[in-house]
Design a protein that fits this description.
Blueprint (H helix, E strand, L loop, with lengths): L10 H10 L5 E4 L1 H6 L5 H11 L4 E4 L5 H9 L4 E4 L1 H5 L1 H10 L4 E8 L2 E4 L4 E6 H5 L9 E6 L11 H11 L3 E4 L5 H10 L7 E4 L3 H4 L5 H9 L5
Parallel strand pairs: 1-2, 2-3, 3-4, 4-7, 7-8, 8-9
Antiparallel strand pairs: 4-5, 5-6
Length: about 230
């Protein structure tokens, strides 16, 4: 929280920019909400959803009650990313997943094998393998797996653990944390060569804002049948 970098003071304009660049899905995190434990930017997010039009918007950060989840869905958010609450209250998470099949994404943030919650500041006391063994066969849309030690650091993505999340859960993964260039996408694509349907997507923030990666170029690579 004390090491944030501001790339723009106008998130709605940035959303429009990434859609213009060819973005097919927007990943939005209410960081204030993640730390506060409740949404802090609902109005701004609803404006982003409106600006996105037909482009789906997935939202995470501070979604820890049923009322909040339903309010976001009613506002047009395509998918909800549940992280802290999914780990702290599995009964809540299971009910939400089964009531809204295909619209709930598990946010799995980890340092090494250990899951972290509360905006990454708390060790949840459970490993990735232990947690994923408990959610087998739940109708989760995808899992956003983030290697905390790499997120925003542009150190390269952790492709080995990303692949392992899929093997442990049977759920498609959205890779996150450390994407620095198109070379990371090549590594990921090669890792999922035999099961491309299990790589649901890749989240990139800093690399895009610092123009180290192009949305168009990245999507073209992942769309192609070639591995290089």
């Amino acid at each position: 929280m004390n090491a944030s970098t501001i790339f723009s003071e106008d998130p709605v304009s940035m959303a429009k920019h990434w859609i213009k660049e060819g973005g097919r899905r927007l990943h939005v995190v209410d960081l204030d909400g993640a730390f506060a434990g409740r949404p802090k930017n609902e109005l701004l997010i609803s404006q982003i959803v409106e600006a996105a039009g037909e482009v789906p918007v997935q939202v995470g950060g501070g979604i820890r009650t049923r009322a909040i989840a339903e309010a976001y869905l009613d506002a047009g958010v395509s998918s909800l990313i549940i992280g802290t609450k999914a780990v702290a209250d599995m009964t809540f998470f299971e009910a939400l997943v089964k009531d809204y099949p295909g619209r709930i994404i598990l946010g799995l943030d980890a340092r090494g094998e250990q899951i972290a919650t509360e905006g990454w500041v708390t060790d949840a006391g459970i490993s990735i393998a232990q947690y994923l063994s408990r959610i087998k066969n739940w109708p989760i849309q995808a899992i956003v797996y983030t290697d905390i030690t790499r997120d925003g650091m542009m150190k390269g993505i952790n492709s080995d653990l990303t692949k392992r999340v899929v093997s442990l859960s049977g759920v498609p993964v959205i890779a996150s944390g450390g994407v620095k260039s198109i070379d990371d996408l090549r590594v990921l694509k090669e890792s999922f060569r035999d099961e491309p349907e299990n790589l649901f997507g890749v989240i990139s923030g800093r690399a895009l804002y610092e123009r180290e990666l192009s949305v168009t170029e990245g999507q073209a690579l992942l769309d192609s049948n070639k591995t290089a």
